[in-house]
Each structure stands twice: as C-alpha cells, then as structure tokens.
C-alpha cells in the first residue's frame, strides 16, 4: 500500500487536502478526505463528497480522479509516449508518478507520506473497515470489522437501491459469491455492485461474536475427509460411500477434499 498527500502548489499555507491510497497488487485507488476538509479547497471532482459529508471516495471516483491527471488510453501517440517514458504497457499508477500527480488543469500534486503521518482520526476509520464476510440466508451478511464488531446486516434494501442488483437478489449462488473489497472498503459482487464499509458498520444488528470466536469454531469444529475417517475409524472410501448414501453431508467439496461439521461425524459415530 502506498499513501500520498494531495496538496496545492499555489496555496499560501501548505496543507493536506486529501489522501490518495494505492494498493499495488490489485492496482486500486481510494481517496480519503480529512475530517475538516474544506469544500472550496478540495479538488473539484472530490468536493462533492465533502459537500455530502462523505469522508471516503469510492474506488470508481478515485480512479476517475487519477485518470483525469494522466494520458488517456485513446491518445493517438500513446505507444510513443509510453516508450519515451520507459513503460512497456499502460499503467495508471506509473503514469501518475511521472509528474508527481500534476496536470495542466490545476496546481495539485502528490507527495508520498507514511501511514504514521495520516491524521489521528484515520486510525479509527481503518478500524471500521471490513475484516471478513459470511453470506447468510435471507439476503443477510455476517460482517466482521477490524474493531472487533460483528453485525448481521440484511442488505436487500441496500441492494435494491443499486443498479444491477436484481440477479444477485434472485440467485442464491451469486449472492454467496460476495467478497471483501480491497483494503476492507466494503463488500462487492464484482466491480459494479458494492456496499461501502461505513454503511455496513452502521446498519443491522450487533452479534455477540468476534472473529477470534469464528476462527476457533472453524479450527475446532470443522474436519476434512482424512480427519473424518480417523474419527469414524474407517477408510476414505467408506466416507465417500456414506456421502453417496446420504448419510454424511459435506459442507464444502472440491476435487481433492471435503469439509464436514465435526458434530455430524460424531453423531454418525454414535449410531
């Protein structure tokens, strides 16, 4: 993760107007706004977020802000520009760094900073990011946050307000494909359908469960095929036969292994 302060060269007093966060592996940008951000000082594209009281600029708008500051992909002599600057391919971050984020339309620029240089209240923001997510029945999600909070959120209403949500609400398998966004900035179903971390942190009911509790459950109460065979004192072939006869029900299956609830294996042993 790389962090940059967005500053204005023409300002009489230098201050951080916003912060650009870049995740290198995923090539994803986010912009964070200071708590005391001034709508009139903030770069134009980002000022609307300040006006609405939002502190985090989502990945789509953050990337758009970056794209406005670099050579566009449809530039006629793009290949020559990349070659002159020693680039083998079009890379938004590399192009942004060539001029330290400067562009001809304004006087803003980027300067790299460390995580420790971010304002103190940013630590709280990061604590409220999503740690993990579990899809539940009834269009609900069990969301674990970095601050230890766990919430059960029925997201049907939130998704209905978003474009392209209908297939997700109608297809249980698709709904269960939900994943955590890069950096814990929310959850998503692909690129076009997301729910931000702040919305999730404020909605739903608090569940008296921690991520450590959940990890302990997985560690103690989930067994693989070999462990199931050892508990039942049988071969792996016998386990497969029990599955075929609908006597055992794996909770996850892939080509090499299967996972079971330990409780079901023990109950089978009692019979």
Structure explained in plain terms:
By secondary structure, the chain is of the alpha+beta class. It starts with a strand and ends with a helix. The protein has helices at residues 44-51, 59-67, 78-84, 92-98, 122-127, 156-160, 166-170, 172-175, 197-202, 211-221, 225-232, 236-244, 262-270, and strands at 2-8, 18-23, 28-32, 56-57, 108-113, 130-136, 140-145, 150-154, 179-180, 186-189, 193-196, 205-206, 222-224, 252-253, 258-261. The chain has three domains: 2-121, no CATH class; 128-209, NE0471 N-terminal domain-like, CATH 3.30.2020.10; 213-270, Multidrug-efflux Transporter Regulator, Chain: A, Domain 2 (Orthogonal Bundle), CATH 1.10.1660. It has 13 helices and 15 strands. The strands form four sheets. It has a five-stranded antiparallel β-sheet with strand order 4-3-2-1-5. A four-stranded antiparallel β-sheet has the order 6-7-8-12. It has a three-stranded antiparallel β-sheet with strand order 9-10-11.
**How are helices and strands ordered from N to C?**
EEEHEHHHEHEEEHHHEEEHEHEHHEEH
The number of helical elements comes to: 13
> Which regions are unreliable across 5 or more consecutive residues at pLDDT < 50?
none
> How far is the N terminus from the C terminus?
54 Å
Total strand segments: 15
Which percent band covers the strand fraction?
15-25%
Number of domains: 3
What is the spatial order of strands in the main beta sheet?
Answer: 4-3-2-1-5
Mean pLDDT: 92
- Determine the fraction of residues in helical runs and give it as a percent range: 25-40%
The whole-angstrom Rg is 24 Å
- Helix and strand content put the structural class at alpha+beta
Shape: elongated
User: Which sheet architecture does the biggest sheet show?
Assistant: 5 strands, antiparallel
């Amino acid at each position: 993760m790389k962090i940059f302060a967005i500053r204005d060269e023409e300002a009489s007093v230098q201050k951080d107007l916003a912060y650009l966060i870049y995740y290198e592996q995923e090539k994803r940008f986010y912009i964070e706004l200071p708590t005391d951000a001034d709508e009139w000082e903030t770069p134009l594209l980002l000022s609307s977020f300040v006006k609405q009281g939002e502190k985090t600029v989502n990945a789509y708008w953050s990337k758009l802000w970056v794209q406005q500051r670099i050579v566009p992909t449809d530039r006629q002599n793009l290949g020559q520009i990349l070659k002159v600057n020693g680039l083998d391919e079009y890379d938004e971050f590399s192009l942004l760094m060539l001029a330290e984020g400067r562009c001809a339309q304004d006087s803003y620029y980027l300067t790299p900073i460390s995580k420790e240089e971010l304002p103190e209240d940013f630590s709280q923001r990061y604590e409220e990011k999503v740690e993990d997510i579990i899809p539940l029945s009834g269009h609900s999600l069990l969301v674990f946050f970095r601050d230890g909070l766990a919430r059960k959120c029925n997201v049907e209403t939130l998704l209905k307000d978003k474009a392209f949500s209908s297939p997700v609400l109608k297809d249980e398998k698709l709904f269960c494909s939900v994943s955590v966004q890069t950096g814990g900035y929310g959850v998503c179903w692909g690129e076009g359908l997301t729910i931000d971390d702040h919305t999730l942190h404020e909605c739903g009911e608090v569940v008296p469960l921690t991520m450590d509790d959940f990890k302990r459950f997985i560690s103690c109460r989930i067994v693989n095929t070999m462990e199931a065979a050892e508990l039942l004192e049988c071969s792996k072939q016998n386990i497969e036969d029990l599955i075929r006869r609908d006597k055992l029900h794996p909770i996850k299956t892939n080509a090499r292994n299967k996972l079971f609830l330990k409780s079901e294996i023990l109950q089978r042993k009692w019979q």
